[in-house]
Design brief:
Elements (H helix, E strand, L loop, with lengths): L13 H11 L5 E2 L14 H4 L18 H13 L9 E4 L2 H12 L5 E6 L5 H8 L2 E8 L5 E2 L1 H7 L4 E7 L11 H14 L2 E5 L28 E6 H4 L8 E6 L2 H18 L4 H12 L1 H26 L5 E3 L7 E6 L5 H12 L1 E2 L1 E2 L10 E5 L4 H16 L2
Parallel strand pairs: 1-12, 3-4, 3-6, 6-7, 7-8
Antiparallel strand pairs: 2-9, 4-5, 8-9, 10-11, 11-14, 13-14
Helix pairs in contact: 1-12, 3-10, 4-5, 11-13, 12-13
Length: 395
């Protein structure tokens, strides 16, 4: 009765069961996997949501690619970042996840392949399955701060490949693409007639000072740019995942962009998923971006400083270290492989009530990594980190 596309294995894994037991025991838990900014108390978001009450929202006038005022507001967001974007090349969706689904359907037929970075956040497999698209990973080189391994990228391209996905900065490694890498990506796409899908949802959130040659955004010209789709939205830019608005900037040669937008307009018209109130509110919401980002910078900076201070107190020979991270809101720890990642996670949960991600959740190339969210309140984070590191260093 049901499609094979939805026949996923839904058996709870070992960590899920361990977490259910811990929660059922009544133990106080510290969640260092928190990814929902609305639960982290970073900024007062209520005044922003009040903008959705504009009475103009009572009138429904659907525009498949998005309300003109909202598309101009997105162009203004990039203008503030020093990049010229034509509002006519902006498409709105309810989320970047929805945009991914539309783009996979736009670019690939069933059983075609799309390349995705490894490691990366485990979202796209579900979307690809629904579109009957195959995902093939290409390597980000851990030994060079997770820069693109172009040898591996070229190796996995075949006759079924239709697009390359890039996450900029990567989630969870926080690595940005350098300008020279962007130009080589453009050349690869041109050589193989591929589109480029760039997820920039974390682009406003910086951690360690990025290298000088980082490309700030793929919405700016880079090399002989291929057909490209740059994704972002309110979920990360303004910490408003509940507002349900994402955007895609379409770049490349005029004829290809025009054809892509014409087809996307028909796809978007099928769903008309973005609410009118949030589109009308978008100019006012983005006008408040600076205060939200300042609060986010303070939170990420405080928690990263607490983590680094606790690591420094262990001394240089400690069996745990933080990998460099230039953006996003996660920190990755490299830990001793005296236990596998699952055993480390279970130990921390059992002994300290601290929840962390195993590296394999993000498809790291080997065992020995734990991933921490930097979103929790600073007092909670600073109290938990020394307890966590005490176990990781005791080898």
């Amino acid at each position: 009765m049901f499609s094979a596309r939805t026949s996923w294995d839904r058996t709870p894994n070992t960590l899920t069961l361990a977490l259910e037991r811990a929660r059922g025991s009544g133990k106080v838990l510290v969640d260092l996997t928190e990814s929902n900014p609305t639960r982290a108390g970073i900024a007062d978001l209520a005044p922003l949501l009040a903008e959705l009450g504009d009475p103009r929202g009572a009138l429904y006038e659907p525009a498949p690619l998005g309300h003109p005022d909202a598309r101009r507001a997105v162009a203004g967001y990039y203008r503030e970042r020093g990049v010229v974007v034509d509002a006519a090349r902006v498409m709105l969706s309810a989320s970047t996840s929805e945009a991914y689904s539309w783009l996979f359907g736009l670019l690939a037929d069933p059983d075609d392949s799309i390349l995705i970075p490894r490691p990366s956040y485990p979202l796209l497999g579900w979307i690809a399955a629904q579109q009957r698209v195959r995902l093939r990973p290409y390597r980000l080189a851990r030994e060079s701060d997770f820069r693109i391994d172009f040898g591996d990228l070229r190796y996995v391209i075949d006759g079924t490949t239709r697009a390359i996905v890039l996450v900029h900065p990567n989630n969870p490694t926080g690595s940005f693409v350098r300008r020279a890498e962007a130009e080589e990506l453009a050349a690869v796409c041109r050589e193989h007639d591929l589109a480029l899908i760039v997820d920039e949802v974390f682009g406003d959130h910086h951690l360690d000072a990025p290298p000088a040659d980082v490309l700030p955004t793929f919405a700016a010209p880079f090399g002989d740019a291929p057909l490209s789709f740059v994704l972002s939205g309110l979920s990360k830019v303004l910490l408003l995942p509940q507002a349900k608005l994402g955007w895609t900037v379409v770049g490349g040669r005029d004829a290809l962009v025009a054809e892509a937008l014409a087809r996307l307009e028909l796809i978007a018209d099928t769903y008309l998923s973005v609410s009118t109130p949030v589109q009308l509110a978008l100019p006012a919401l983005l006008a408040r971006r600076a205060s939200v980002l300042a609060a986010m910078r303070a939170r990420l900076g405080a928690n990263l400083a607490a983590l680094d201070s606790s690591l420094a107190a262990l001394g240089p020979s400690a069996a745990v270290r933080r990998l460099p991270a230039f953006g996003g809101w996660y920190a990755t720890l490299e830990v001793a492989r005296v236990r596998d990642e699952e055993a480390w996670v279970e130990l921390l949960l059992r002994e300290e009530g601290i929840i962390v991600h195993p590296g394999y959740f993000f498809d790291f190339d080997r065992d020995g990594f734990l991933v921490l969210s930097l979103l929790p309140p600073p007092d909670v984070f600073a109290e938990a980190v020394p307890r966590l590191l005490r176990h990781l260093a005791a080898v």
